[in-house]
């Protein structure tokens, strides 16, 4: 399916003010754009639902590490995991609830030369962004981007270029967690080569 219209305007704040279980599949096929020309289409996501979700960083309340999750919707929450990787999330829902959606994979669109420079071990386009740690490397997202306002769009933004979410996204359990691992809160674009794994 091809995009029907191009837009350079970031998605509005109202787009993010929804429950993560509603927002997550709606994020599929939106475009994450960096100010330097790098961009990728979101093809895989996972929802994390605050106090209702033992796997969410916000489950036990607000801390300096997860403070952005409790702020206004439409900001980027970035955290460090396994002592080596950054992961990027979209804060959503109602302020104070601690809801977010993890971006798990992107399909690279533009700026691939910059992505390869940031991920020199990638052997092909698929390996650039096929996982949460890979895509943050490819898009140069680190702790410095924690709290970035995606609606202002000065450095990073989410854009709708006219390609709608899939009518029937694949829905499965989440990956790489030990708590609430049975929750079916992961969605991805079926048959897309750029997801992290089937």
From TrEMBL:
Entry EC no(s): 3.2.2.-
Keywords: DNA damage, DNA repair, Glycosidase, Hydrolase
Annotated InterPro entries: Formyl_transferase-like_C_sf (IPR011034), MPG (IPR003180), MPG_sf (IPR036995)
Keyword Iron: no
Pfam family, one: Pur_DNA_glyco
Protein family (similarity comment): Belongs to the DNA glycosylase MPG family.
Protein name: Putative 3-methyladenine DNA glycosylase
Organism name: Dyella flava
């Amino acid at each position: 399916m091809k995009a029907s219209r191009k837009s350079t305007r970031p998605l509005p704040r109202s787009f993010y003010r929804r429950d993560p279980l509603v927002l997550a599949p709606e994020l599929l096929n939106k475009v994450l754009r960096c100010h330097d020309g790098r961009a990728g289409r979101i093809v895989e996501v996972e929802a994390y639902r605050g106090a209702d979700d033992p796997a969410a960083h916000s489950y036990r309340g607000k801390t300096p590490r997860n403070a952005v999750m409790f702020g206004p919707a439409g900001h980027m929450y970035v955290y460090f995991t396994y002592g080596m990787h950054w992961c990027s999330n979209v804060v959503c829902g109602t302020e104070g609830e601690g809801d977010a959606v993890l971006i798990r994979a992107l399909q690279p669109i533009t700026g691939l030369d910059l992505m390869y420079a940031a991920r020199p071990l990638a052997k092909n386009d698929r390996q650039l962004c096929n996982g949460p740690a890979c895509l943050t490397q490819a898009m140069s997202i680190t702790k410095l981007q924690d709290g970035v306002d995606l609606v202002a769009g000065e450095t990073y933004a989410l854009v709708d270029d006219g390609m709608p979410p899939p009518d029937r996204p694949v829905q499965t359990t989440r990956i790489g967690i030990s708590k609430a691992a049975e929750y079916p809160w992961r969605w991805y674009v079926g048959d897309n080569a750029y997801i992290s794994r089937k």
